[in-house]
Amino acid sequence: MTIPATWEPLSAVDPVLTIAQDLFTTMIDGEPGHLNPWAGADPDLEDPRYTWVDVNGPVVTRVMLTASRVTGERLTRALLGMDTVEYVCDADFADAVGEIANVVGGNVKSLVTNPGALTLPVVTHERPDMDTATCLLETYFGWRGAPLGVGLWALT
Amino acid sequence: MKALVIDDSRVMRKIVGSILSGVGFETLEAENGQVALDTMAAHHDIVLCCIDWNMPVMTGFEFVVQVRKRAQWRDVTLMMVTTEGEQDQIVRALAAGAHEYIIKPFTPEAILDKLQFLGLVEVQETV
Amino acid sequence: MTLAADTFDFVATLVRDRSAIQLDRGKEYLVESRLAPLARSAGATDVDAFVRALRADISQHESVVEALTTNETSWFRDLHPYTVLRSTVIPALATAGRSPVRIWSAACSTGQEPYSIAMTLADNFPSLKAHIVATDIADNVLAKGRSGRFTQLEINRGLPAPMLVKHFERQGPCFEIAPHLRNRVMFRKHNLLEQPPGGGPYDIVFLRNVLIYFDVVTKRSVLARVRAALAPGGYLFLGAAETTIGVDDTWERIQVERGCVYRTREGKRI
Ligand SMILES: C[S@@+](CC[C@H](N)C(=O)[O-])C[C@H]1O[C@@H](n2cnc3c(N)ncnc32)[C@H](O)[C@@H]1O
Ligand SMILES: [Mg+2]
Fold it and tell me: Each residue of C63-93: pLDDT tens digit?
């Protein structure tokens, strides 16, 4: 399967990293420096959650974040300004990581000509079936010591 | 002054809402465009709406179109706050009647700059 | 992580000598955090070691000064100066027959200020002939200004959406200002401690949010040079926290609606 030229720039890490760093700097950390490329071998994520949005254009493209439940809870607390020990319910968890995927997905979409419409975020325990999809990018970022997976797949 | 924060994400409603209440707005929330229209009908003193684009039931874009059909809401300031950042989308939203447009992610200052320029809060000179 | 006292003193002296920016004791964290990236890319173990090496190597001095400038800026910052420009200053200069109108945006940082001026002119006085010179001490901000490309976060800071769609075009992750506006602004390197840039005398000078970094003696000398570069009857805009009052009384502060502008006392009579 060939990937349309327009999505090609996104198979490089830089634009996606910049998008994620802007989001973390402004809305999660309040300062730069805490989100960086993951150094070393691909990490194993404990109790992972998969969060994605699709861009339904001529090519259906999925922007997916992967993080352990614990990391997602820390992100939720950071976004909601909660105490570090406060309990994070499933609804808040899904809302927060879903919105992170939405912002990353929307910004990724803006880099592509004629991209199509963004779907609402979905959060699951199971990795969605993407056997027939073409991976454009799969990488990990490190946020305050914790790994965050970011990937882009062409589904059609 | 009342503001309505429209976003399907509760996290985002909370973030935008606390920026607005920090400058004296009383804030209401709606999780989609339809709920927002109902809220507008129930509160006649809303002066500002911050509007997400992608939401279930009714999008923020459709909400803007609906609001602009009613003469009684002519003076309400409509500001998109969305992850949609393509130039075409911004042009569409403005053409439909939105006054301002902020692309997520944003800092509190970005929202405050816009509110000042829209005349909704006093210009705070920066140092 | 704490900076050695002599490291701080060396950097503070270097930055003061080159730019007049005052780094008082207590700003150690600022020096540390701004120089850490430079130290890292130079391969130094920490900022102290990096600064020790600087003493023998002046080639890095300029980038140290650059790293310690604060470049915070935004579109139509504080709004009032641009309202006064539109409602009062440009009409007065036009009536006085000034053509072209010469404008100097001093300490312009990444260009939001001179481009905000350029948009104000283009939208309200399309046939006005004007030259805008934009200067700063730091090469990195000048390069960014010249490129005319701004990130989404920068665009979010104060650029009205109607102006965004009218004057900018999306290019990948950035928005790029229209060529006719970019070409209208001449970016040049200039240190406010030196003689004003050529291209004057200027009818309008924006000197905003930079005097605050200087001591009173420097403020006075900078204002004197600006006065010399100002055309008779010219206008000076300062930042909201800045004033000539008590610093240089050859200036008169004129309140215009919610904003203010400064003119020299002899200039006003012309
Ligand atoms: C806070 S920015 C102000 C930008 C813009 N004028 C505004 O008001 O938004 C201050 C700028 O002053 C510049 N600067 C500091 N010392 C300077 C000097 N001695 N000569 C020229 N520029 C200087 C810095 O590089 C920085 O870009
Ligand atoms: Mg949404």
Answer: 999 999 999 999 999 999 999 999 999 999 9
What CATH class does C80-267 carry?
alpha beta
The greatest distance separating any two alpha carbons of chain B, rounded to the nearest whole angstrom, comes to 43
* CATH dotted code for C5-68: 1.10.155
Report the pLDDT value the prediction gives residue A13, as an integer from 0 to 100.
Answer: 75
DSSP state of C2: P
What's the fold here for domain B1-23+60-107? Rossmann fold (3.40.50)
Q: Which residue among C153, C170, C173 sits closest to A15, beta carbon to beta carbon?
A: C173
Asked if pLDDT for residue A6 goes beyond 80, the answer is no
Neighbours of chain B (3+ CB pairs under 8 A): A, C
Q: Which residues of B touch A103 (CB under 8 A)?
A: 83, 104-105
Residues of C in contact with A15 (CB under 8 A): 172-173
**Scanning the structure block, which residue is given the tokens 């009818």?**
C203
Q: Do C224 and C248 meet the contact criterion of CB atoms below 8 Å apart? A: yes
Per-residue pLDDT band at A4 (split at 50, 70, 90): low
Work out whether strand A134-143 and strand A35-37 pair parallel, antiparallel, or are unpaired: antiparallel
CA atoms of C191 and C139, how far apart (whole Å): 11
Q: Which residues of chain A neighbour C173 with C-beta distances below 8 Å?
A: 15, 18-19, 107, 110-111
Distance, in Å, from the CA atom of A115 to the CA atom of B123, rounded to the nearest integer, reads 38
Asked whether C42 and C50 are in contact (CB, 8 A), the reply is yes
Counting as contact any 3 or more CB pairs under 8 A, the partners of C are: A, B
Ordered by start, the domain boundaries in chain B are 1-23+60-107
**Domain boundaries along the sequence of chain C:** 5-68, 80-267
Best B5, B9, B53 member to test A by mutation, with max A CBs in 10 Å, is B9
Q: What residue ranges define each of the domains in chain A, with the CATH number in brackets?
A: 5-30+47-155 (3.40.1550.10)
CB pairs under 8 A between A and C: 15
- ipTM of the complex as predicted: 0.94
Asked which of A8-22, B59-73, C47-61, C201-215 is least confident by mean pLDDT, the reply is: A8-22
Question: Which position among C136, C149, C182, C263 bears the catalytic label?
Answer: C136
Q: Is C179 exposed, middle or buried (0-12, 13-18, 19+ CB in 10 A)?
A: exposed
Which among C75, C112, C136, C225 is the best mutation to test ligand 1's pocket, defined by most ligand atoms within 8 Å of the CB? C136
Which among C152, C160, C212 is the nearest to B117, CB-wise?
C160
A29 interfaces chain C, CB cutoff of 8 Å: no
Q: How many beta carbons lie within 10 A of that of residue B42, not counting itself?
A: 9
Q: How far apart (Å, rounded) are the C-alpha atoms in residues C13 and C261?
A: 33
Choosing from C34, C77, C149, C182, the catalytic residue is C34
Q: Under a CB-based contact definition with an 8 Å cutoff, are residues A133 and A154 in contact?
A: yes
d(CA B119, CA A11): 43
d(CA B3, CA A151): 37
